[in-house]
Specification:
By secondary structure, this protein is of the alpha/beta class. The chain has helices spanning about 15-20, 30-45, 95-110, 125-135, 155-170, 205-220, 220-235, 245-250, 295-305, and strands at about 5-10, 50-60, 65, 70-75, 90-95, 115, 140-150, 175-180, 260-270, 275-280. α3 packs across α5, α5 (about 155-170) packs across α8 (about 245-250) and α7 runs parallel beside α9 (about 295-305).
Length: about 300
Amino acid sequence: MGELALVAKITHVPSMFLSELDGPRKGTRQDAIDGHREIARRCKALGVDTLVVFDTHWLVNANYHINCAPHFEGTYTSNELPHFIANMPFDAPGNPVLGALLAKACNEHGVETLAHDATTLAPEYGTLVPLRYMNADQHFKVVSVSALCMAHYLNDSARLGWAMRRAVEEHYDGKVAFLASGSLSHRFAQNGLAPEYAFRIWSPLLETLDRQVVAMWERGDWKTFCEMLPEYASKGHGEGFMHDTAMMLGALGWSGYDGRAEVLTPYFGASGTGQINAVFPVTPQRGEAIPAAEASTARHYRAFARL
């Protein structure tokens, strides 16, 4: 049937939009933009028809949600950083059929998920910034998935990713890319210090932690990383508690994944946060679906979600 053709962890820093505009920031995020364009090039070469974005700017308080409207069009200004992203136009076709298939599979795997096709809900900038550079020609259809999950277990997000891959491979007639749109450490610079940290990480501890994680990804040490993910997400200020990363790894096979990351845009600092563009080869999933309550994940989540 269908194929999960490409998986990537991507940045969506709003300074990419500033990088296009005349002024002191012009050209300063060209490496991140080039990484997005390389991912788009690879997707086209692989025959991908739809980009599924796990968006850590779409906040939800209950269930998982999929925005699969037939079409997305409008002008976006960030309520978080309106001085970075203002009046940014967007236009992209959606994929209601795929959205419904993804939600059905997630529910069958015990992860309550709702697909929204008849909706006026627009995507957040975790989806819109990547689309600006990956889909300017509207070559790809787009589905956005909520990944700023305020009351969710990471193992459920991993099962969601696992189930979504099953939906694509068993029920979809086409090729899909999964994009985990979120940072590594996400500790913004304190108010008043943002310009000073425009190209830096907030602390040496967070930068060291992030670089060690990237090294784990490059050598394929997924067992260690999956075990430490809940604590890393909490103590490392992971964006959206790193639910996008859990979804991505669930799709790849979680701790049984045997691929190694290929870094396209090397790790960089942005307003105190740690960012990257990296591609993960899609290999066969091993074993059974991720359990509903993986003991180590649930234990660590309970221990650190309160921090």
